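To assess whether ligand presence alters the predicted conformation, the chain was also submitted together with AHG. Input:
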Amino acid sequence: MEKTLTLKEYVKKNDKEIAGLIVKMADIAERISQELPYRRGKADTKNVFGETQLVADKWTDKFIIGEFRKSRLVKTMKSEEQGEIVKLNDNGIFNITLDPLDGSSNMKSNNLVGTIFGIYKKDLPTQGKNQIGAAYILYGPVMSLVYATKNSVNKFFYTKKGFILKQKNIKLPEPGILYGIGGLRKDWLPKFRKYIEGLEAKGYKLRYGGSFVGDFNQVLHYGGIFAYPALINKPNGKLRLSAESNPMSYIIKQAGGASTNGAGSILDIEPESINQRIPTYVGNKGLIKNLEKIL
Ligand code: AHG
Ligand code: MN
Ligand code: MN
Protein backbone atom coordinates (compact mmCIF):
# COMPACT_ATOMS: atom_id res chain seq x y z
CA MET A 1 0.00 0.00 0.00
CA GLU A 2 1.54 3.28 -1.18
CA LYS A 3 2.26 5.77 1.66
CA THR A 4 -0.19 8.70 1.55
CA LEU A 5 1.76 11.72 0.40
CA THR A 6 1.26 15.13 1.95
CA LEU A 7 0.63 18.03 -0.44
CA LYS A 8 4.10 19.36 0.34
CA GLU A 9 5.77 16.02 -0.49
CA TYR A 10 3.78 15.60 -3.70
CA VAL A 11 4.23 19.10 -5.10
CA LYS A 12 7.94 19.26 -4.22
CA LYS A 13 8.46 15.98 -6.08
CA ASN A 14 6.26 16.65 -9.12
CA ASP A 15 5.92 20.40 -9.63
CA LYS A 16 8.98 21.92 -7.99
CA GLU A 17 8.69 25.24 -9.85
CA ILE A 18 5.40 26.19 -8.18
CA ALA A 19 5.79 24.15 -4.96
CA GLY A 20 6.31 27.24 -2.80
CA LEU A 21 3.14 28.83 -4.21
CA ILE A 22 0.95 25.74 -3.77
CA VAL A 23 2.17 25.19 -0.19
CA LYS A 24 1.39 28.86 0.53
CA MET A 25 -2.12 28.36 -0.94
CA ALA A 26 -2.64 25.41 1.41
CA ASP A 27 -1.67 27.56 4.42
CA ILE A 28 -4.00 30.31 3.18
CA ALA A 29 -6.84 27.79 2.77
CA GLU A 30 -6.47 26.60 6.35
CA ARG A 31 -6.72 30.13 7.74
CA ILE A 32 -9.64 31.18 5.49
CA SER A 33 -11.64 28.07 6.48
CA GLN A 34 -11.18 29.06 10.13
CA GLU A 35 -12.30 32.64 9.48
CA LEU A 36 -15.33 32.02 7.23
CA PRO A 37 -17.71 31.23 10.15
CA TYR A 38 -17.10 34.74 11.50
CA ARG A 39 -16.74 36.87 8.37
CA ARG A 40 -20.40 37.09 7.39
CA GLY A 41 -22.76 39.73 6.02
CA LYS A 42 -22.51 42.55 3.52
CA ALA A 43 -19.76 45.18 3.44
CA ASP A 44 -20.79 48.74 2.61
CA THR A 45 -18.78 48.79 -0.66
CA LYS A 46 -19.11 47.61 -4.28
CA ASN A 47 -16.40 46.09 -6.49
CA VAL A 48 -15.43 47.28 -9.96
CA PHE A 49 -18.27 45.14 -11.36
CA GLY A 50 -20.78 47.08 -9.29
CA GLU A 51 -21.44 44.03 -7.11
CA THR A 52 -22.02 44.60 -3.40
CA GLN A 53 -19.02 43.09 -1.61
CA LEU A 54 -19.41 40.77 1.34
CA VAL A 55 -17.28 41.12 4.43
CA ALA A 56 -15.80 37.73 3.45
CA ASP A 57 -14.95 38.93 -0.10
CA LYS A 58 -12.96 41.84 1.27
CA TRP A 59 -11.29 40.01 4.12
CA THR A 60 -10.17 37.04 1.97
CA ASP A 61 -8.94 39.44 -0.74
CA LYS A 62 -6.85 41.47 1.72
CA PHE A 63 -5.59 38.38 3.55
CA ILE A 64 -4.49 36.50 0.40
CA ILE A 65 -2.74 39.52 -1.12
CA GLY A 66 -0.98 40.14 2.23
CA GLU A 67 0.16 36.52 2.49
CA PHE A 68 1.56 36.46 -1.04
CA ARG A 69 3.26 39.80 -0.46
CA LYS A 70 5.02 38.34 2.61
CA SER A 71 5.99 35.21 0.66
CA ARG A 72 8.04 37.37 -1.74
CA LEU A 73 7.20 34.84 -4.48
CA VAL A 74 4.68 37.06 -6.26
CA LYS A 75 5.35 40.08 -8.45
CA THR A 76 1.76 41.25 -9.16
CA MET A 77 -1.81 40.09 -8.53
CA LYS A 78 -5.06 40.88 -10.32
CA SER A 79 -7.96 40.17 -7.97
CA GLU A 80 -11.65 40.20 -8.86
CA GLU A 81 -12.08 42.51 -5.87
CA GLN A 82 -9.45 45.01 -7.05
CA GLY A 83 -10.07 47.17 -10.14
CA GLU A 84 -6.36 47.40 -10.98
CA ILE A 85 -3.33 45.09 -10.96
CA VAL A 86 -1.65 45.18 -7.51
CA LYS A 87 2.18 45.26 -7.26
CA LEU A 88 3.61 43.01 -4.53
CA ASN A 89 7.36 42.40 -5.00
CA ASP A 90 9.55 43.80 -7.81
CA ASN A 91 11.66 40.64 -7.77
CA GLY A 92 8.73 38.25 -7.36
CA ILE A 93 8.61 35.41 -9.90
CA PHE A 94 4.88 34.82 -10.42
CA ASN A 95 1.87 36.88 -11.45
CA ILE A 96 -1.37 35.59 -9.95
CA THR A 97 -5.03 36.11 -10.86
CA LEU A 98 -7.47 35.72 -7.98
CA ASP A 99 -11.11 35.24 -7.19
CA PRO A 100 -10.73 35.40 -3.41
CA LEU A 101 -14.20 34.14 -2.71
CA ASP A 102 -16.17 32.61 -5.55
CA GLY A 103 -19.87 31.99 -4.98
CA SER A 104 -20.38 34.76 -2.44
CA SER A 105 -24.15 34.60 -3.03
CA ASN A 106 -23.96 31.12 -1.47
CA MET A 107 -22.61 32.40 1.83
CA LYS A 108 -26.03 33.01 3.44
CA SER A 109 -27.00 29.36 2.95
CA ASN A 110 -23.54 27.95 3.66
CA ASN A 111 -23.46 26.39 0.19
CA LEU A 112 -20.17 25.75 -1.61
CA VAL A 113 -17.77 28.66 -1.97
CA GLY A 114 -14.13 28.65 -2.96
CA THR A 115 -11.01 30.53 -4.05
CA ILE A 116 -9.64 30.46 -7.61
CA PHE A 117 -6.00 31.14 -8.63
CA GLY A 118 -4.39 31.53 -12.05
CA ILE A 119 -0.55 31.27 -12.09
CA TYR A 120 1.57 33.07 -14.70
CA LYS A 121 5.18 34.07 -15.20
CA LYS A 122 4.28 36.45 -17.99
CA ASP A 123 3.07 39.91 -16.96
CA LEU A 124 -0.71 40.43 -16.70
CA PRO A 125 -2.99 40.85 -18.55
CA THR A 126 -2.18 38.02 -20.95
CA GLN A 127 -3.91 35.07 -22.65
CA GLY A 128 -4.98 32.21 -20.41
CA LYS A 129 -2.83 29.79 -22.41
CA ASN A 130 0.18 31.50 -20.81
CA GLN A 131 -0.70 30.07 -17.41
CA ILE A 132 1.92 27.72 -15.97
CA GLY A 133 -0.66 26.46 -13.46
CA ALA A 134 -4.06 27.05 -11.85
CA ALA A 135 -5.70 26.01 -8.60
CA TYR A 136 -8.86 26.24 -6.57
CA ILE A 137 -9.84 25.69 -2.96
CA LEU A 138 -13.29 24.36 -2.12
CA TYR A 139 -14.37 25.15 1.46
CA GLY A 140 -16.34 22.07 2.37
CA PRO A 141 -17.88 19.62 3.07
CA VAL A 142 -14.30 18.32 3.07
CA MET A 143 -11.97 21.21 2.28
CA SER A 144 -10.14 20.34 -0.92
CA LEU A 145 -7.38 21.92 -2.97
CA VAL A 146 -7.10 21.09 -6.68
CA TYR A 147 -4.13 22.28 -8.71
CA ALA A 148 -3.10 21.74 -12.31
CA THR A 149 0.17 22.19 -14.19
CA LYS A 150 1.17 20.99 -17.67
CA ASN A 151 1.89 17.63 -15.98
CA SER A 152 -1.47 16.80 -14.35
CA VAL A 153 -4.48 17.76 -12.26
CA ASN A 154 -4.25 16.70 -8.60
CA LYS A 155 -6.62 16.83 -5.64
CA PHE A 156 -5.81 17.09 -1.92
CA PHE A 157 -8.08 16.84 1.12
CA TYR A 158 -7.56 18.81 4.30
CA THR A 159 -7.07 16.63 7.42
CA LYS A 160 -5.97 17.37 10.98
CA LYS A 161 -2.47 16.61 9.68
CA GLY A 162 -2.76 19.11 6.83
CA PHE A 163 -3.51 18.50 3.12
CA ILE A 164 -2.94 14.95 1.80
CA LEU A 165 -3.01 13.63 -1.76
CA LYS A 166 -6.43 12.13 -2.63
CA GLN A 167 -6.33 11.83 -6.41
CA LYS A 168 -3.55 12.44 -8.93
CA ASN A 169 -3.70 12.93 -12.68
CA ILE A 170 -7.49 13.52 -12.70
CA LYS A 171 -9.11 13.03 -16.12
CA LEU A 172 -12.67 13.97 -17.06
CA PRO A 173 -14.84 10.80 -17.17
CA GLU A 174 -16.26 10.04 -20.63
CA PRO A 175 -19.09 10.38 -21.39
CA GLY A 176 -20.15 13.09 -18.96
CA ILE A 177 -23.45 12.86 -17.12
CA LEU A 178 -24.09 16.37 -15.68
CA TYR A 179 -25.01 19.81 -16.87
CA GLY A 180 -25.14 23.05 -14.86
CA ILE A 181 -26.09 26.40 -16.40
CA GLY A 182 -26.06 29.89 -14.87
CA GLY A 183 -28.44 32.71 -15.65
CA LEU A 184 -32.20 32.42 -16.23
CA ARG A 185 -33.44 29.92 -18.83
CA LYS A 186 -35.68 32.61 -20.33
CA ASP A 187 -32.53 34.71 -21.00
CA TRP A 188 -30.51 31.95 -22.73
CA LEU A 189 -30.02 32.39 -26.47
CA PRO A 190 -32.53 30.19 -28.36
CA LYS A 191 -29.78 28.09 -30.05
CA PHE A 192 -28.18 27.42 -26.66
CA ARG A 193 -31.51 26.52 -25.10
CA LYS A 194 -32.09 23.98 -27.91
CA TYR A 195 -28.63 22.48 -27.24
CA ILE A 196 -29.44 22.08 -23.53
CA GLU A 197 -32.86 20.56 -24.30
CA GLY A 198 -30.96 18.04 -26.45
CA LEU A 199 -28.80 17.09 -23.45
CA GLU A 200 -31.89 16.81 -21.23
CA ALA A 201 -33.52 14.51 -23.81
CA LYS A 202 -30.38 12.32 -23.61
CA GLY A 203 -30.77 12.10 -19.81
CA TYR A 204 -28.04 14.48 -18.62
CA LYS A 205 -28.64 15.32 -14.96
CA LEU A 206 -29.03 18.93 -13.78
CA ARG A 207 -26.54 19.89 -11.05
CA TYR A 208 -26.41 23.64 -10.34
CA GLY A 209 -25.14 24.94 -7.04
CA GLY A 210 -24.65 28.63 -7.80
CA SER A 211 -20.88 28.83 -7.38
CA PHE A 212 -18.60 28.39 -10.38
CA VAL A 213 -16.00 26.64 -8.25
CA GLY A 214 -18.53 24.12 -6.89
CA ASP A 215 -20.27 23.54 -10.22
CA PHE A 216 -16.96 23.22 -12.06
CA ASN A 217 -15.73 20.71 -9.47
CA GLN A 218 -18.77 18.50 -10.15
CA VAL A 219 -18.08 18.47 -13.89
CA LEU A 220 -14.40 17.67 -13.23
CA HIS A 221 -15.45 14.59 -11.23
CA TYR A 222 -18.50 13.34 -13.16
CA GLY A 223 -18.03 14.79 -16.65
CA GLY A 224 -20.57 16.89 -18.52
CA ILE A 225 -20.80 20.63 -19.09
CA PHE A 226 -20.95 23.78 -16.98
CA ALA A 227 -21.84 27.10 -18.57
CA TYR A 228 -22.45 30.64 -17.59
CA PRO A 229 -23.60 31.44 -21.11
CA ALA A 230 -24.04 34.59 -23.15
CA LEU A 231 -27.51 35.89 -22.21
CA ILE A 232 -29.95 37.94 -24.29
CA ASN A 233 -29.45 40.86 -21.91
CA LYS A 234 -25.78 40.07 -21.07
CA PRO A 235 -23.96 39.05 -24.28
CA ASN A 236 -20.69 38.54 -22.32
CA GLY A 237 -22.35 36.47 -19.59
CA LYS A 238 -21.20 37.00 -16.01
CA LEU A 239 -17.90 35.26 -15.33
CA ARG A 240 -14.63 37.21 -15.37
CA LEU A 241 -12.08 36.09 -17.96
CA SER A 242 -9.00 36.53 -15.77
CA ALA A 243 -10.21 35.64 -12.23
CA GLU A 244 -12.59 32.78 -13.08
CA SER A 245 -12.77 31.51 -16.68
CA ASN A 246 -9.07 31.30 -17.58
CA PRO A 247 -7.96 29.31 -14.51
CA MET A 248 -10.84 26.84 -14.81
CA SER A 249 -10.34 26.55 -18.59
CA TYR A 250 -6.68 25.67 -17.92
CA ILE A 251 -7.64 22.99 -15.37
CA ILE A 252 -10.33 21.40 -17.54
CA LYS A 253 -7.93 21.27 -20.50
CA GLN A 254 -5.25 19.51 -18.41
CA ALA A 255 -7.97 17.05 -17.35
CA GLY A 256 -8.69 16.22 -21.01
CA GLY A 257 -11.70 18.50 -21.44
CA ALA A 258 -12.17 21.82 -23.25
CA SER A 259 -13.51 25.36 -22.87
CA THR A 260 -15.10 27.82 -25.26
CA ASN A 261 -16.59 31.29 -25.30
CA GLY A 262 -18.83 30.02 -28.07
CA ALA A 263 -16.27 30.57 -30.84
CA GLY A 264 -13.04 28.98 -29.58
CA SER A 265 -10.93 28.04 -26.56
CA ILE A 266 -11.13 30.61 -23.76
CA LEU A 267 -7.38 30.18 -23.26
CA ASP A 268 -6.72 31.76 -26.68
CA ILE A 269 -8.68 34.93 -25.97
CA GLU A 270 -6.58 38.09 -26.13
CA PRO A 271 -7.86 40.13 -23.14
CA GLU A 272 -9.28 43.52 -24.19
CA SER A 273 -9.60 44.77 -20.59
CA ILE A 274 -8.39 43.44 -17.24
CA ASN A 275 -11.98 43.26 -15.97
CA GLN A 276 -13.55 41.66 -19.03
CA ARG A 277 -16.43 39.20 -18.67
CA ILE A 278 -16.68 36.21 -21.03
CA PRO A 279 -19.40 33.70 -21.98
CA THR A 280 -18.02 30.52 -20.38
CA TYR A 281 -18.65 26.91 -21.38
CA VAL A 282 -16.44 24.12 -19.98
CA GLY A 283 -16.68 20.32 -20.08
CA ASN A 284 -16.05 17.20 -22.12
CA LYS A 285 -14.38 17.86 -25.49
CA GLY A 286 -17.22 16.28 -27.51
CA LEU A 287 -19.87 18.39 -25.79
CA ILE A 288 -17.89 21.60 -26.29
CA LYS A 289 -17.19 20.84 -29.97
CA ASN A 290 -20.93 20.14 -30.60
CA LEU A 291 -21.85 23.35 -28.80
CA GLU A 292 -19.47 25.43 -30.93
CA LYS A 293 -21.06 23.93 -34.06
CA ILE A 294 -24.54 25.09 -33.04
CA LEU A 295 -23.50 28.49 -31.66
P1 AHG B 1 -18.52 35.61 -7.26
O1 AHG B 1 -19.20 35.19 -6.02
O2 AHG B 1 -17.02 35.47 -7.20
O3 AHG B 1 -18.98 36.95 -7.75
O4 AHG B 1 -18.92 34.57 -8.40
C1 AHG B 1 -20.22 34.27 -8.54
C2 AHG B 1 -20.45 33.75 -9.91
C3 AHG B 1 -20.10 32.26 -10.04
O5 AHG B 1 -19.52 31.72 -8.91
C4 AHG B 1 -21.43 31.61 -10.29
O6 AHG B 1 -21.31 30.67 -11.31
C5 AHG B 1 -22.31 32.75 -10.71
O7 AHG B 1 -21.80 33.92 -10.14
C6 AHG B 1 -23.71 32.55 -10.23
O8 AHG B 1 -24.42 33.62 -10.79
P2 AHG B 1 -26.01 33.69 -10.56
O9 AHG B 1 -26.17 34.02 -9.10
O10 AHG B 1 -26.46 34.75 -11.50
O11 AHG B 1 -26.56 32.30 -10.90
MN1 MN C 1 -16.45 34.26 -8.77
MN1 MN D 1 -15.65 36.36 -5.91
